[in-house]
Predict the 3D structure of the following.
Amino acid sequence: MNRKELVAAVADATSLEQKTVDAVLRGLQSTLEDAASKGEKVSVPGFFALSVGQRAAREGRNPATGATIQIPAAKTVKFSPGSALKEAANK
């Protein structure tokens, strides 16, 4: 499902206009990006939890040449599905 299909599906399920759903989705994205940039955890019980984690620097290999390369440390966003989302996936 892409963004356009998601907006259409939510609009159908909620009887809202697609432009309203799209605005809400853009607002949600902006809010999640802001929370991630601040290192905050976002949790919606039963649905999902997002948190920022730290990935340590490590040594890797260039798959094309086999040469050893240094991969720098980086922050990453962790997504954990909630219980309702897990149950829906396992039906």
Q: What stands out?
A: Residues 10 and 16 are 8 Å apart (CA to CA). The longest helix spans residues 18-37. The chain has two domains: 1-38, 40-91.
